[in-house]
Amino acid sequence: MVIFVAICKLPQKFDCRPIFLSEKKITMNKTFTNFMKSKLLLFFISNIIIVCYFTSCKQKITFPPKAEIKSIAEEAYIFGLPYVLEYRTMYLQAIDRSSGSYVGFGNFLHYGATTADNKDVMTPNRDTPYSWAWLDLRAEPWVLTVPKMNAAENRYYTMQWNDLAGFVVDNVSAMTDGYDGGNYLIAPPLWNGIIPEGILRVIQGETYFMGCLTRTELFDNDDIENVKQIQAGYRLQPLSQYLGEPAPVTASEIDFYHFMDGKTDVDISFFDCLSFVLQFNCANPVDTILDKMAKIGITPGTNWMKLAKVNKDLAEGAADGMKAMIDTLNHIARHIKGGSATAFGNRSVMGTRYWDRALGAYLGLFGNTPEQAIYKNIGVDVQNEPLNAAKHNYSITFDKDEIPQVQFFWSITMYSMKDRYLVANPLNRYSIGSHKRDLKYNSDKSLTIYLQKDNPGKEKEANWLPAPDGEFYIILRQYGPSKKAIMGEQTIPNAIKTR
Questions:
Q1: How far apart are CA 411 and CA 404, in angstroms?
Q2: First CA to last CA across the chain, in angstroms?
Q3: Is the pTM of this model over 0.70?
Q4: Which of 202, 362, 377, 489 lies 20 to 30 Å (CA to CA) from residue 142?
């Protein structure tokens, strides 16, 4: 016997409650369950759930022509890329107990200075040791506590909160909140409860899982113990614990999707993972692309791979569409020389600019808003050829008036184009910038940075940023950027071949 369940549109306050459907069971969020048990059940039942039982019957699904499947798959890949990549990081850190970076939900995972061994996220930052955390908000909100810090140090910190859609929902930071510390409420979509005393503000995204990437500035290697002390002061606790009340009923157990690097992110199982993640998304009415995606079976909780296995056109069309978008993103990554001002932001800023959001996720998941930081990617030289240290040496020179003017600090970080991670090197030097006190300036007060795989010699070593034996790109980061940088009026020098 097969059970088909159709759910009609609910009143607005129930639109985004997570409902997990499968052929074997239906589990619902506590709020929805209580509603269904209420005396209004008989009144609403005919409009909400229609359950039909059929014996020995099969559901017939009709898909569009293969060309249309490919077109929709292209759009679905761009729309869904942030969801899947956010889920990948959450899977590694909060779900997969065999992962070397597993810490579970509701706990901080503190790192020291990032090295080439860190693989949790592509294009990691070197100058601000990370503290990661993930929250499951289905049962109740959580409270974030930030410790008081020494304002005289002018230390940059930010606790960036993303939802699974890839939106930068909020930043609790030195720039926005100062150094006095405080408590902040991280709430699920549509939460409208009473804000407890002592809460400075509510942070609320579009998904029932939220991730936090905290960056705490490291002045130099001798400063690491100070950073660790600050990190130890970051705290998360459920709202019930903060209030000293009994915990609510635990949310239903989830059979989490098994993410596999080198598979889920590069073949059509991507769409299977996306369908899974969309169960925890509070669908925004402006995302009409979701209606298109439904035409090729990408809907919340759908076993999409099961559909693809029995429909050749669906599988091939989706594969063709996905490949086209991956090739396009790879091309952009290899030829980019631009900033991040349009790639990261909250829903009100990003709207439906799915391409910008996807490019931001592809080049640097958890990149921040331009008010916090500006990221300039350089992947080509002055001749617009991809940077390749196996073939050439390069240099980049800032005129004295072009050296970044920032509230906190700036740096240039080296990445391998092959995997978008930091580059292992004999000096363990992954970035270079204003934190490096022994940089050598030219006689005219300009600054030259050398980008090559081999040591340029003692005379230039202080200004050398080691490159891989192959293609690479660099990112110029500016924390507390100038208005000129935010407005895109800053001049960024070109990489020039020196050999």
A1: 9
A2: 71
A3: yes
A4: 362
